Amino acid sequence: MLLLALAVSANAAIEVRDDLGESVRLSQAARRVVTLAPSTTELVAELAPQALVGVDSASDYPASVGTLPRVGRYDGANVEAVLALRPDLVVAWSGEAMARSLAQLKAQGVAVFVSRPGNPDEVADNLRRLGKLLGRSSRAEARAAQLQSRYVALKATYRGRLRVPVMLEISRRPLMTVSNQDFLGRAIGDCGGINVFGDVVAPYPLVSVESVLARAPALIISTAADPDWQHWTRYPGLPAVIHGQLKILDDDRLLRPGPRLVDGVAALCAVIEAARPAGK
Predict the structure, then answer these.
(1) What does pTM read for this prediction?
(2) Strand-by-strand arrangement of the 89-92 sheet
(3) Is the separation of the CB atoms in 87 and 33 below 8 Å?
(4) Which residues of the chain have pLDDT under 70?
């Protein structure tokens, strides 16, 4: 009987692989979850908001997470504070800064799922795997399918439109943009634009003013809330300046690879569409 009970228990266990290829195994669906990045907070909240017991300092959506304990930042987690919340599962975006904290949590026996989606299909895949860990597979499948179908429809809307040369300015000092190695760069193409730095090997290249002038974007979009446009208006021959196409897109939905990513890309497409000559 004991062997039978152990076999049943093993069969009931839930196991998936995270975005680093690591196995994440739970004896039952997670009921207490800590998230350590805004995107992972949104992923879990989409499926099981009641399971959230702690989040990172930057998580602000949905509004219901505003009352939860803040137990981490982009550069690491407060391991003691996380453990005090007795989580079944921690979901995190893991860069080098966070990796040490996650290793400490794993050493304490905490299950950790690393989420690093780079496009809507990968967000959908994250939803499906997290749905298994949270006991919300049906809901996850429905949300994932909806997200993917919306993105297919969005791309179809802009297919065949006049291609607008676009530069996405991620930061001014240093001057940073995106290439087509990154989803944001490819999303410009999905919106019917041309990423003028799309061919660069680095996903987030540092570029010079001279290279921007040489590639002559007709539209420059800054993701900063209050960009300093004077560094571009001093170049009156730049097409984006000639046509008054220096635009702001300060939208967390675009910069967080979570369930609202398609909404963020739709906002990007709207900016590009507004820069396109009428009827093109």
Answers:
(1) 0.90
(2) 52-54, 33-35, 89-92, 111-114
(3) yes
(4) 1-12, 279-280
